[in-house]
Sequence to fold (238 residues):
Amino acid sequence: MTETIQLGDIFIAVTRKAVKNVHLSVHPPEGRVTLVAPSGTRLEVARAYAISKLGWIREQQTKLKNQARETPRQFIERESHYLWGRRHLLAISERECKPFVSLDHKRITLIVRPGSDREKRAEIIHEWHKSLLHAVIPALISQWESKLKVKVAGYFLQRMKTKWGSCNHAKGHIRLNTELVKKPKDLLEYVVVHEMVHLIEPTHSDRFIAILGEHYPTWREARVELNELPLAAEVWKE
Fold:
């Protein structure tokens, strides 16, 4: 059961779980605040803790608000597009053939039929992004299955508005945000490992943090870097 604390214009979703310590988080992209407290914690105690951290909450929300945000992509000639953390320029080539995308050192070339609109170009690029992710994710999963002693029954790629990944513990499935193709590959690995650890421990408990810390000691730095990179500006239709 989730309860809500209101501190002025800040709303905090409070959840009680089998954890030893309080975990307060400010989530990108919009600055949503959550507080996970040990099972027996009274709401008044959680409120007092949140009040003591109010300055930190506002600081994190301000950082997110001021964070670089990608302008909406128009999929036009010489537009900047990011791939694995590196900036590339887009080249458009109109031909009467099946659309496809090619990549050289610093250029992404999008081959489309004459008269294609922004939505069609965006769809082609998105499918290409998924193919790039499919080319690297299975090996990552296989590598970490042996390290974590878990089995991923399946993985899925999709656009996500507020998460980099998610895990269905019961089914053994993980889902990954297609925006990860724009980030450095080590950050993709961090998200894969994070979601796979959820196959062992479904919540963000102390046990989860201990397991993640043991196998991926730099997870905090990776999380900070991931959340400091430019946020996408696309308005996604789910």
User: Anything to note?
Assistant: The first helix runs from residue 43 to 52. The first strand starts at residue 2 and ends at 7. DSSP finds six helices and eleven strands in the chain.
